[in-house]
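Notes from the 1:1 (GR / supervisor)

We went over the backlog. Supervisor wanted to see one worked example end to end before approving the batch request, so GR pasted a single chain during the call. The sequence is below; no edits were made to it. Supervisor asked that the structure be written out right there so they could see what the output format looks like.
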Amino acid sequence: MNKATTVAPLENPNTRIWDKICETDPNRTKDFNKGYRGTSINPNYIYEKLTGCFGPCGIGWGFVIVKDEYKEGHEGEISHSITVDLWYKNGDVKSEPIPGIGGTPYVFKDKNGWHTDEDAPKKSLTDALTKATQLIGMSADIFGGLWNDCKYVAELRRKYNSEEPENTPPAETSNQQTKETQTSKPDTGGKKVTKAQAGLLWHKFSEAGFGQSDIEEYCEFHYQAKDNHDLPMSAVKVILALFDKGELVTVGKKKQLENMTA
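Structure output shown during the call:
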């Protein structure tokens, strides 16, 4: 009898580059609110991913500035705009130019008066390269809307979180160990959680039904920390283990359960 064999799916040559650069490390992003909320990518991260995929800038990839200009706008405002042609090498084949257009206010007025941004050309260039690299899949998970799914972002944070606390309970902590950890003297010393870990814990608290005040109360009660960003690294595996077991509850609910069993 022939044994069943598992065949690995074939790589799609049409999406090979896209698949390499479409995922974004949360540690290399920043949230912003400019009247609307969004997530920006560290420009150096874009260049790093291009280099990892194609080789050094100028050899495996690069760009040409096609147009660089200042434009007058309303009531003396001036904006800077730039157009670039991005290129990359796919093996020995150099791509056709990939256009990207970026723009930044240079002289502008807001509620605090008139301002001049001397970094406008640099910002416009970053904007143009970000737009051009989008066309080949750069951080497509952000631009494609996947980051609107908090579970997707939480899994990314878990994946890219390489820092593991050394002396923490294993993920498969028993119920008795978990209870002892929750009621023992809190670990308030040592290294604090990273930004990525704090974000992951926030999502787990939210999925467990915690509001912001519940999170702060929990951190204060169990770890003498002001919020999820102030937690010790040893708290990460404990809280994740509680969440996985369905035992991550607010301080108020915990006290209710203790009163019922007293």
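Supervisor's comment: Residues 16-147 form a domain with the Enolase-like; domain 1 fold (CATH 3.30.390.80).
Batch request approved.
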